[in-house]
Amino acid sequence: MTSGVVDAQAIDLRAVQRQVDAVLESFLAEKVRAAAGRGHPPGVVQTVRDFLAAGGKRIRALLCVVGWHAAGGHGDVASAVRVAASLELFVAFALIHDDIMDDSASRRGRPAVHRAMRARLGAGERAERLGAGGALLVGNLALMWAQELLHTAPIESGRQRLVHGLYDAMLEEVMYGQYLDVMGTGRGADDVEAALRVIRYKTATATIGRPLQLGAAVAGADEAAMEVFTGLGLPLGEAFQLRDDLLDVFGSPDGT
C-alpha cells in the first residue's frame, strides 16, 4: 500500500457508477445476442437486466473502485471496474435467492423475481413452486455471469490468485451466512449473538470489507493494507446491515 493519502474528492463516484453500469450493459447485451443465436429463452437475460435497472445503491461496486484508489492504483482503472461490475451481478444473485427464501413480495419497488414469475404462471401451488424454481435458475445464471466477468477482468497475472481467492471467500461467507439465517429462523431462536453472526457472514464482510479488499488486490496491495480494510469493513458492514434492518421494519418503502 502506498504511503500517499488519496484525495477523496478526486474520485468521481457518479462517474464510477456510470462506468460500472456501462460494463454491465455491454456484458448483458452480448448475453442477449448469444441467447438469440443459440435459441435460448430471451426472458432470462432480460430479467437480470430489469433487476439491475430497477435501482440499488451500487455500494459494493463503488467501494471496490475506492479500494483500488486507496491502495495506490494508477493507470487504467478498467480492471477494477470490471471486478466491481461482477459484484453487482453477485448481489443480484444473492438478492433474488434471498427473496425466494423469505418469500418477499417486492424488491427495489417492483415485484420480487419469483413473484413476477409466479404471476405469469397463474394462481395455485404449482405456479408458486414453478415461479420459485424459475427465479432460482435466473439467480444461478447471475452468479455464473458474475464469475465470468471476474475471470475476464484484465488483472495482472501475479495478482489474479489473490483476487480470485478473496472473491471465493466472499461467496463462501455469504452462503454460510444465508444458511445460518435460514436455520436460525426455522428454530425461532432469540439469540443476539447468533443474529450478529449471521450479519457478519451474510452481509457485513461482503458489503464493505471484501469489495475494498478486491479493489486493493487488483491494485497490488500488500497484507497490511488488507488488514486495514478488514478492521474498517467489518464494523461498517455490521452498522450498514443493522440500519438496513431497522429501515425494513420501521421505514416506508419510498424512503428506503
Please explain how this structure is put together.
The chain has helices at residues 13-38, 43-53, 59-70, 78-102, 113-121, 125-151, 157-187, 192-219, 223-250, and strands at 106-107, 110-111. By secondary structure, the chain is mainly alpha-helical. The chain has a single domain (9-250), classed as Orthogonal Bundle (Farnesyl Diphosphate Synthase), CATH 1.10.600.10. Strands 1-2 form a two-stranded antiparallel ribbon. Mean pLDDT is 86; it is low at 1-8.
Keywords:
256 residues, mainly alpha, 2 strands, disordered N terminus
Question: How is this fold's topology laid out?
Answer:
Blueprint: H1 13-38, H2 43-53, H3 59-70, H4 78-102, E1 106-107, E2 110-111, H5 113-121, H6 125-151, H7 157-187, H8 192-219, H9 223-250
Antiparallel strand pairs: 1-2
